[in-house]
Amino acid sequence: MAIWNLGSINIDVVFSVPHIPSPGETLGSTGRKIFLGGKGTNMSVAVARAGSRVSHIGAVGADGQWTVDRLMENGVDTRFIAETEEGTGQALIAVDAQGENTIILYPGANHAIPLTNLQNALSEAETGDRFVFQNETTLQAEAAKLAKEMGLAVTYAAAPFDADAVKAVLPFCEMLFLNEVEARQLTEATGQSPADLPVDDVVITLGSKGCDWVTSRGTTHFDAMKVDPVDTTGAGDTFTGYVLAGLDQGMPMGQAIEQATRAAALMVTRHGTSDVIPDLSEVRAFRM
Q1: Among 33, 172, 187, 251, whose CB has the most other CB atoms within 10 angstroms?
Q2: Over pLDDT 90: what percentage of the chain?
């Protein structure tokens, strides 16, 4: 089977700061690095490093060919990444001494993905494949509807959160990933608790507290591994990618979540984004 990811591709510019800046504050940085990033990119790399086949559907500008090359080097199928006149998406990230971050996004080419790229990609998909997307690209509703009609298992990672965007794609989704704040915002917007949503599986990530897997049958909690984080950027995307890869490989949901929890814990002990996502051998060897 395969995983098809309509996902963002960003150039991440990461600044190390003593604390997250307040409004109006000018703050000196102690370091600056450039990484391959984007929620979609991170998920594709995580899926590939977890041992599953993944095709990325997206777009970059002329300045972003190196990002496509890097994805290919990581084992991601890049045939359906278009080059557009828009510049490649960028993220300006500040990471403090405790590993917390704040992010400013410029969508760029992520908002100029040609519909034909999506159609050409999914023409190769097979019933039972998995389709994942996030709220950093265009074509979300069109993609979700098409993937559902083709018999793909549709997963939505609802970040950056927008209630209208989530409500537009919920009828087509089998699985939904939210963090704790997003889950509360969606409940406020819809009047429905996660268990009442028309989705088979809702996974709510809780940071250092682990995650909840919510179905109509109830809620199962999974504890996080205790580590000393240095950078939380990309941890949620790593978790999502590993869950999808585990399911793609036939794991029960609980086993997929447990493996993804180890991957996310290892990820937060590293500085960077997609370039430092752990591979499956590292995750299996990681114990605390």
Answers
A1: 172
A2: 85
